[in-house]
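re: ur question from yesterday

yeah so i grabbed the chain u mentioned. its 212 aa long if i counted rite. heres the sequnce exactly as i have it in my notes:
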Amino acid sequence: MKISIVVTQEEHFKFAQEICDTIESSALLRGTGIAKRTPEYIQKKMSNGDAMIALADGKFAGFCYIESWEHGKFVAHSGLIVHPDYRNLGLAKKIKSKVFDYSLKKYPEAKIFGITTGLAVMKINSELGYKPVPFSELTTDPSFWAGCKTCTNFPILQSKENKMCLCTGMLYDPKDKPKDPPRHPFNEAVLSRLKKIKQALFLNKFLSVLFS
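ran it thru and got these structure tokens back, copy pasting raw so excuse formatting
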């Protein structure tokens, strides 16, 4: 089986609905929040060359797209997904690495950031040189945070004035260090524990408000 990862074009529009369905079903399976995408939005990214797709013998295998904020000052990678038939092959890491390198070429001055609740994504980001940061170091563009409205955790984000949520913010600044080797150690056990503590703190606060 040969899997290729390429920059998207209009010929890939036919995969847009499947990509959206796969992203949503994966989030539901994990029980995590999700910012929903529409096929039209995915197609727009495809036509602009701001996305990469993995194809296995012509079939959709994985996807990720790029968003830019504050006139290219910040860049984010969103919608990283691997089709269930092609998981456990290290494909997510390959896609993320390809998108990362592509972003550095297309937006050489941009800081690359992301917010995620997934430990697997955090690990990939750490290996690429991202570091955990508070939300205050990320874009302040309201349109980015508006994209979180369809996430189940959005009320938490609102209550914290976009300064904190269950997601962890991660940032790569090309001005800090060259890509090789800016590896930040990743301790899954520590991050997993911090995630659980954060969830418990938010849950206790919401319950106290709800029953007060």
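noticed a couple things. The two ends are 58 Å apart (CA to CA). also The longest helix spans residues 188-210.
anyway ttyl
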